[in-house]
Amino acid sequence: MTDAETSARMSRQRTRDTGPELALRRALHRLGYWYRVDAPLPGLPRRRADLLFPGPKVAVFVDGCFWHGCPVHATRPARNREWWAAKLAGNIDRDRRTDEHLTALGWTVVRVWEHESVEDALGSVLAHLPAR
């Protein structure tokens, strides 16, 4: 169990419209790209892509360093270590299963880290989209 303060803090964590997501969306929109935001994934109930390009079948995820286990910036809470270890490992496992499922359906999955520059993230996404 977590204390009330921790619970309240964690409940305020954004699941969409984070700063890195908004910056990437703005950059793509300036270049003339249209996409779906926080879109459900085909065949995966309760899972969503941060950006979805249905035509070229590209799903983009802007992964948070804490929640998705960034190899550079991931941290582990001091309280409830075992619970958090299992929770965060489960997130990473779910990400891999999502990637495999979408790839099997012919989708391209692009994952960028929240700490990446907008230019780097944009380059990763544009590499899989038709030119505008």
Topology record:
Elements: H1 4-11, H2 19-30, E1 36-41, E2 44-53, E3 58-63, H3 65-68, H4 81-104, E4 108-113, H5 118-126
Parallel strand pairs: 3-4
Antiparallel strand pairs: 1-2, 2-3
Helix pairs in contact: 2-5
Architecture overview:
With 132 residues, this protein is of the alpha+beta class. It has a single domain (4-126), classed as VSR Endonuclease (Endonuclease, Chain A). It is built from five helices and four strands, in the order H-H-E-E-E-H-H-E-H. A hairpin with a 4-residue loop joins strand 2 and strand 3. Helix 2 (19-30) packs across helix 5 (118-126). The model has no long low-confidence stretch (mean pLDDT 91).
Overall number of structural domains:
1
- The coarse silhouette is globular
CATH class: Alpha Beta
- Helical fraction: 40-55%
Which key phrases capture this entry?
four-stranded mixed beta sheet, 5 helices, Endonuclease, Chain A, 132 residues, alpha+beta
Explain briefly what this protein structure is.
The protein has helices at residues 4-11, 19-30, 65-68, 81-104, 118-126; strands spanning 36-41, 44-53, 58-63, 108-113. By secondary structure, the protein is of the alpha+beta class. Helix 2 (19-30) crosses helix 5 (118-126).
